[in-house]
Structure formats: C-alpha cells, structure tokens
Amino acid sequence: MAAVAPSELAFVPFVSVENMMRLIHRIGIEEMLKGIAGYIEDDFRRWESFDKTPRIASHSAEGVIELMPTSDGEVYGFKYVNGHPKNTKSGLQTVTAFGLLADVDTGYPVLLSEMTLLTALRTAATSALVARYLAPEAADTMAMIGNGAQSEFQALAMRALCGVSRLRLYDIDRKATDKLIGNLSGLGFDLTACSSPQEAIEGAQIITTCTADKQYATILTDNMVGAGVHINAIGGDCPGKTELHSDILKRATVFVEYPPQTRVEGEIQQMPEDFPVTEMWQVITGAAQGRRDARQITLFDGVGFATEDFSALRFVRDKLAATGLCQQLDLVADPDDPRDLFGMLQRATLSEGAA
C-alpha cells in the first residue's frame, strides 16, 4: 500500500448498500459478474500464496453465523455472514454480510463494505467461472432448482461467462418461480416454469441446485441425472444441509474449493473422509484435469470460500477510486501521540463539557 499520513488511515472507505447498488448499475451487472469472476480466477491461480482456514462458524438451531478470513501476505480480508433459512418467514434476508480489507503492514482497515449484494454476485461469479471450466461445450440450457434470492444472479452469471440462454425453473414455492420469471422477463432469456425437479432438468446441460432449508434433503436422486451434465450444487453449505443423493456423488467427478471446509459443509459431508475430490485451483492452473469427455458427470460442490470474498472486495476497491461511491468512516482512533490514547479521550471529554 502506498504511504499515507497517519491521519488519513483513521478514515476508512465504506461502501453502503445504496452505493453498492449504484456501483453495480454504473458498471452493469453482467460486466461486474465477469469482473469479479476474473479476480476470483486470478486469485485461484495464486492459491498457494493465501493463508487458508475453514470458516469459523457459530451454529444454532435456527442458522449459522460465520467469519471467513484470509490473507495473501499483503492484504488481509474477512467476511461476516449469516445463514438463517427461516428468516424469509419474518420478512428478513436468509443471508446478510459485510466485509473488510486491511493492510498487513500496519493492521489498519482500508475498506469496509456491505456484502449481502456482493456475496450474491461473488457466489454467482464463482459458479459461472467453474462452469466455464467444467460444463459441456456449448451448453446453453440450465435447470435452476431453487428460485430464491440467488437465482437471478446465477442466471445472469451463467449467461455472461458461459452463454446460457435457456432456463428451466423449479421451486417448491411457485411464488418464487413467478418472482424469478418477473425479474428476468425482457432480459433475453428463454424461461420455462416446471412442475418438478425431474421436468426442470430435461434437456439441461447444467443443473444448479440452490435451496435454503437446513436439512439433509434429496433434491436430485441418482436416476434423475443423465450422463454428461454439469451439476452446480451450491445450496448445501453447512453441516447437516445437503441437496443430492449420495449415489450421484459416487458417479460424478467432484470439484471443490477447499477440501477441509467442504468435507464438513458440502455435499461430500455424506461421504467418507478419503472420498476423492479435485480442487478447482488445480484445474484453473492446469495442474489437474477438468472435464475429460462428453459423458462425464462433473459436480461442483460449492460452499463458498474466503478467497472468493477477498477477490470480490479487491474488485470493488479497485473500481471505487474513480467513482466517489463511498463514504469515509471515522473508524480508527487517531491520537496526536500514538502512545497517548487516554489523553485523546480526556481532551474529547473536556471539549464536550465546554460545549
């Protein structure tokens, strides 16, 4: 980080929800999805430079609250995120988040941002980036099973990065499907509402499962999945929450972000500890093979990893400079003498009393 005066470091750029929405509209949502995917791809290529740890989770009967930290040795980042599937019944979001970047040399924060919207973007960008490496060639049809808050982002990312134009949609709640169709109508997609998961996957080369219930569910059974498809399984993202029958995993080649986290949270939590998986950074760097042939079933067991949030925050930070779409938060105490924090407090107390 370039040298700056200590007083400048006390004020931290903050991206509010309003300014994040302005940034997305200024860049364009599909361009932003492609941009974030590019940063994620770059960071996968330098995977071995990152500190990596499974996210730190606090589980309850109603959901989970998590911290997701990482560092590349120069910049440190973390995301706070929750997952509470029942929130929608109270008019609340299932997932909310905020994130921070800090300078490793000083420990000072350099960006604080909303990440509810940004998490939706980075999740979709990761899915589409992986599909670009693993999906059948010229795939143009995706089944979207689970039509909640993430579904539109998945659709737009798959089009932006993979050329998907036809969507076959199913949700146990028809209102969710109607919402998705309403939001994407007029945006150039061929949209088909389906009455079952089986109907939704007919003719689809990519199958995305993104349901929210915290339970061992079977959204797809083995007999539903034909040869040659790519499954983007992103709904099973915490212990006790899965979407696929274990027999599908046995037939598929399974790709993951970070095995120590995915074995606890992903679809492969159903499998033995030594169940074979391939890490996506290895595919992206050419160290491992992705799709081998037209009949292979590829499965991305995506749970979301801290480096992807780090990538998204870096993208936002790089784009902010020319926009002015941030506020300056007085977040860090800045005494005239760094050894005299108490004196700063006392002077403020005297000033308040005089006022």
TrEMBL record:
Pfam families: OCD_Mu_crystall (PF02423). It comes from the Bacteria. InterPro entries: NAD(P)-bd_dom_sf (IPR036291), ODC_Mu_crystall (IPR003462), ODC_N (IPR023401). This is Ornithine cyclodeaminase. It comes from Paracoccus seriniphilus.
